[in-house]
Protein: Etoposide-induced protein 2.4 (EI24)
Amino acid sequence: MKQPPYVSVAAAFSKGLATQMRPSMLFAVVLPFVIALITAVILLVFAWGPLDNWLDNTAMHWGWFQSVSTRLSGWGFVTMSDWLTGVLTFVALLAVSGIAGLAAAAILVMPLALKVIGDGSYPDVQKKGENATVTSLANTVKVSTIFVVGWLITLPLWLIPFAGIALSLFWGAYAFSHMTRLDAIVEHATLEERVYVLRHYSRGFWLIGLICAAIALIPFAGFVMPVFSILVCTHYGLMAVKAVRAQQLVAPVENSPAQAKRLP
Structure:
């Protein structure tokens, strides 16, 4: 069996950066930022109290948390929730607003990105996808739901020293990779090609997501990551489709419903 052809993640980042410098893509950065900002304001107004209380009640069941809280009370803090759980609540709500911005980018910016990248850099990659719009919307809802639920469930783990960094990188990598990897190829790849690319190039998409998540931790860099991650994943995905077709690694399969169930 032939090995899948190599596709460079570094080349995808280089091409993504060049595409990001285009005026249309620079302007596109504003849209997910505005939506994320509006979502953040709404969440901070209506969800702060319930989430802070839940996190505080959860933490108080941990012995080490109570011990540290007692020590902090001697330094002028009545309870640890006066600062730590409040900070974590703030971070959690910002993360949820961030996924809203990323989802908006996937829905509204991705079509523009596909047109710019597909027509400009990969005109020889024929569009053979089916049900692209429905598939993209379903993927956006799925990834957003998993991210929000997973983030909230693992939120108490942030109280463990240094766990917050690892969790931020993991969930950021998941969001940046899974929100865009399917959308990047859904218009161009056949159902069989989608299955092949998502299976054999999963590590590449995860690596892109991890790098974007790490960059997003830099102050203000996170503002451009929703759109930039889309551009990088689109380049990577279309390069993969092009390489797979060049080596004829995927044969058409008529039983599409059966293949659809195998999609990651």
In short: The first helix runs from residue 9 to 20. The chain has one domain: 9-260. Confidence is low (pLDDT under 50) at residues 253-262. Residues 9-260 form one domain.
